[in-house]
Each structure stands twice: as structure tokens, then as C-alpha cells.
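ok so I'm stuck.
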Amino acid sequence: MTSMLDIVFIMLIFFIVTASFVSEKGLQMNFPGKPPAGPPSPNEPIGFQVDANNHIFHAGRLIDPWSIEPIIKREHTERPEAPVVVSTHKDAHTRQFIRIYDEALKAGMGRDRIAVVVSSE
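replied:
not stuck anymore, here's the structure
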């Protein structure tokens, strides 16, 4: 039994001495910087988000449902080619999307310029 243990230790020492340890270099990642703080591009969508608690957000700010139409009118005037995109949580009420949809129609958006995206977050 002792001789077998000696052989195992000798093999272990042999493998440690002969092994070459290479430090792996990872991929170089070039992350984009902050986006320029200028006006949005002409085709950037007019975005609204509806969370699971049925709160409506625009540009990261909580907004009042009655301010949807003026926001769309203002941004549609600045960027006539921009569509309206509504991102809703899967647990949000449909009436919130319908409200944004109706306000977009009142603001002069065409039916083909309004889209909805359902997310689980």
C-alpha cells in the first residue's frame, strides 16, 4: 500500500512540474459611452411604458393620463415620422394601452404609427 502511495505522489509532482499554466486573456470589450445629449433622432419612437401597477411613464417620468395627448402632439410636431410605441407589463390593464392609443389618435397619429410591446418586467 505504501509503494502505491509513493507512486501517486511522484505522479502528482510530475504533473505539477510539467503542467504549463497559461493566463487566459479575455475578450476585449468596448462598451459604448453615454448617448449624446442632443435632440432625439427623427425616427426615434415616442415611448410610453405601463408598469404592473398601471402607472404610465414617458421618458422615465411618471405622467398623468391627461398629459398623454399634449406630449404626443408636441413630439409629433418635432418629429413627424416618429411612431408611438407603448411598452406594457403583462399584468397591466388593457385599458391603459387603450387610453394611450385613443390619445394618440386624438393627437393626429395614424393607426399604423402606434405599436404595443408586452413585457414581463
